[in-house]
Amino acid sequence: MKTFLKLALLLALTVYLIFAFVRLAGGGDDTKCKAVDITIVDSTHAGFITTAEVRRLLSKAGLAPVGKRMEDIDGKRIEQVLLKNAFVKHVTCYKTPGGRVKIHLSQRLPLLRVMADNGEDYYLDAEGNAMKPEGYHADLIVATGRISRDYARRKLACLARQFHSNPFAADLVVQVGVAPDSTVTLVPRVGCRLIRYGKLDSLNMDRKFSNLKAFYAKVLPEVGWNTYREISLEYADQIICKKK
User: Fold this and answer.
1) pLDDT digits (tens, 9 = 90+) for 146-168
2) Torsions phi, psi of 128, nearest 5?
3) pLDDT tens digits, residue range 47-92?
């Protein structure tokens, strides 16, 4: 008898869950949407996608859910529209009881702005994805010079990740220059006019910036901040300076 009751309860629960799922998926739910809950992953970092921007994009596409019947709200369509924005990485949209729509979104964070000498202008994320500005603006380090999309993806993305994870490097550098031979120079905020980095090599990047940080912390305060006009990091184990 107890086994029969357990099976009956399990069957009733299963039927209820199936009914609730079908209803929430858009089958005959006349409930009107009362609210949209938007969650943005990594929202504490600098990015262009905010809850206000998500609402604006949905309103522009005529897909703002609030006030619409739950059965008329197309979650897949909402996901497709938001994914058209280059700064949106992943989107999940679903309905919940009580007339609410949930949107979970992860964004592509711009880490570097590329303004190449071939006229291309775009933002670069940690994976090397290029994103057109599309009216957005961020105060980021700018890379200029002979920069192809392939070079940006393979090389500059490594440098962008270094800036993102290394506060010292991000605060010091204001511009990155790429020469025709792919050698890189950095323009610092303070200390000297130019830092010759050399070829971008991810294996030596941590060491080079660690040496540079030690040089700025220990050497320049002793000899004077305006003593050198150039600093070279081309050799990973030493720093070569040129006086003014």
Assistant:
1) 999 999 999 999 999 999 999 99
2) 90, 10
3) 788 899 999 999 999 999 999 999 999 999 999 999 999 899 999 9
| Distance, CA of 10 to CA of 217 (rounded, Å) | 68
Question: Is-contact 89 81, C-beta < 8 A?
Answer: no
Whole-model pTM? 0.75
Q: What is the distance between the alpha carbons of residues 37 and 69, in angstroms, rounded to a whole number?
A: 16
Domains and CATH numbers, the chain: 2-107 (3.10.20.310), 112-243 (3.40.50.11690)
Which residues pair with residue 5 across a beta bridge? none
Q: Which residues contact 216 (CB under 8 A, 6 or more apart)?
A: 168, 172, 191
List, in sequence order, every beta strand (DSSP E) within the chain: 35-41, 88-96, 100-107, 112-116, 121-124, 130-131, 142-145, 173-178, 183-188, 194-199, 228-232, 240-243
Cα separation values, 113 from 40, 54, 75, 76, Å: 23, 23, 33, 32
Question: HSE (CB half, 13 Å, CA atoms) of 123?
Answer: 21
